[in-house]
Design brief:
The chain has twelve helices and eight strands. The protein is an alpha/beta fold. It has two domains: 174 residues, Rossmann fold (3-Layer(aba) Sandwich), CATH 3.40.50; 155 residues, Rossmann fold (3-Layer(aba) Sandwich). The strands form two sheets. Strands 2-1-3-4 form a four-stranded parallel sheet, sandwiched between helices. It has a four-stranded parallel sheet with strand order 6-5-7-8, sandwiched between helices.
C-alpha cells in the first residue's frame, strides 16, 4: 500500500471575474475560523458589506496577475505537487487540494482514498500555524474523513516555520537575487491576522501582544501556536542564514481587512516609513506564502511598490515564493520523511 500525501493550500477563484470571485469569497469568508465573530454578525458582514462590493474589486486585482495557466497560486501549486510526486517515488500518492474552491478537499480526499493507504499524511502548505489557515484546513479534512467506513491512519505535518530545510530553501532562493539587486534594506512581509486571533492562540493568558515584540522573541510553551511568533522566528532564521546585519531588515504584516486591530507593524505603513527614511532599494520576502499569489504579485509587487516609490523609494524587488523550486521540493520531501519515519520507542 502507498502513503497518501494530501497537500492543502488556501485556494483561488476559477477566473478573474466578479462572477467567479463571489462564490470563492463566500466560501472563504463564511469560515468561522477566518471571520471569528458570532454567526449572525458574520452573515451580515459578508452579505451586506463584503459581497456586494468586494468581488469586482478583487476580480480587477486578480486580472492583473492572471496567467495563461490560470491563477498563479494554482499553477505554482500544481507544478510543486507534480515535482514532489516524482521526488517521493512510487510508494507515495500525492494529491493537491484547496481549502476553498477547486480542486476541493472533498474531491481530493475521494481521489486519494480510492485505494487503501498505508497512512494518510495531511500537509498544510502554511509554514506558520494559524487557526484561520492550518487549523481550518485540518478541521475540514478531518470532517470529510470522519464518515468513511475505513479511515486511514492519519498524520499531520506541523508548522515548519523554522525547519532547517525550509529555511535553506528560502535562503538559496533569495541569495542570488539579493546579490544581483543589492538592496539597502530587506523587509519580511507576512500575511496579517486580527489581534484577537493571536490572543486566542496563547497558552498563557496575557502573554501574546503584551510587550511589543518581546513576546515574539522566542517560541515556547506560552506561545507555541502563535502565528506572529512563528513569523518572527522565520525572519530570525532566514536573516541569520543570509548574514543580514541588525538594522538592515524588519518584519511586517500585510493584507489586513476591516477596522478591527490587526497585528503590527502594517506593511503599507512600513513601506512609506522606509521610503521617507531614505531607503532607495528595497527587497521584500513573503515567507508565509509558499506559492506566489495575489498577495505577493499584486498587493506587494504592484501596490506595495507604488506606495514605496511615492514615499521616496526607487526600486522594490520581490523575492519570489518558493513555488516549484527544486530546493523547496527537496525540503518538503525531507519534511514528509521526517514525520512519517518510525518514531523512537
Amino acid at each position: 500500500m502507498k502513503t497518501g500525501i494530501l497537500l492543502i493550500n488556501l485556494g483561488s477563484p476559477e477566473a478573474p471575474t466578479a462572477a467567479a470571485v463571489r462564490p470563492y469569497l463566500r466560501e472563504f469568508l463564511s469560515d468561522p475560523r477566518v471571520i471569528d465573530i458570532p454567526a449572525p454578525l458574520r452573515w451580515l458582514l459578508l452579505n451586506a458589506v463584503i459581497l456586494p462590493f468586494r468581488p469586482a474589486k478583487s476580480a480587477a486585482a486578480y486580472a492583473k496577475v492572471w496567467t495563461p495557466a490560470g491563477s498563479p497560486l494554482m499553477a505554482h501549486s500544481r507544478a510543486f505537487a507534480e515535482k514532489l510526486a516524482v521526488a517521493l517515488g512510487d510508494d507515495y500518492r500525492v494529491v493537491l487540494a484547496m481549502r476553498y474552491g477547486n480542486p476541493s478537499l472533498k474531491d481530493a480526499l475521494a481521489e486519494i482514498t480510492r485505494e487503501p493507504l498505508r497512512e494518510l499524511v495531511i500537509f498544510p502548505l502554511y509554514p506558520q500555524y494559524a487557526s484561520a489557515s492550518t487549523g481550518s484546513s485540518v478541521e475540514e479534512a478531518l470532517r470529510l474523513l470522519a464518515p468513511l467506513q475505513n479511515v486511514p491512519t492519519l498524520r499531520t505535518i506541523p508548522a515548519f516555520y523554522d525547519d532547517p530545510g525550509y529555511v535553506r530553501a528560502l535562503v538559496e532562493n533569495a541569495a542570488p537575487r539579493l546579490r544581483a539587486f543589492r538592496p539597502d534594506f530587506v523587509l519580511f512581509s507576512y500575511h496579517g491576522l486580527p489581534e484577537r486571533q493571536i490572543r486566542k492562540s496563547e497558552s498563557r493568558a496575557g502573554h501574546c501582544l503584551a510587550a511589543g515584540d518581546a513576546c515574539c522573541a522566542a517560541v515556547g510553551p506560552d506561545n507555541a501556536y502563535c502565528y506572529r511568533a512563528h513569523c518572527f522566528a522565520t525572519t530570525r532564521a532566514v536573516a541569520g542564514a543570509l548574514g543580514l546585519a541588525a538594522g538592515t531588515y524588519s518584519t511586517a504584516f500585510q493584507s489586513r481587512l476591516g477596522r478591527t486591530p490587526w497585528i503590527k507593524p502594517y506593511t503599507d505603513h512600513v513601506l512609506t516609513e522606509l521610503g521617507q527614511k531614505g531607503v532607495k532599494r528595497l527587497a521584500v520576502f513573503s515567507p508565509s506564502f509558499v506559492a506566489d499569489c495575489l498577495e505577493t504579485l499584486e498587493e506587494m509587487t504592484i501596490r506595495g511598490a507604488e506606495t514605496f516609490m511615492e514615499a521616496g523609494g526607487e526600486a522594490l524587488e520581490l523575492i519570489p515564493a518558493l513555488n516549484g523550486e527544486d530546493v523547496w521540493v527537496e525540503a518538503a520531501a525531507d519534511l514528509i520523511g521526517k514525520w512519517t519515519a518510525p518514531q523512537p520507542q
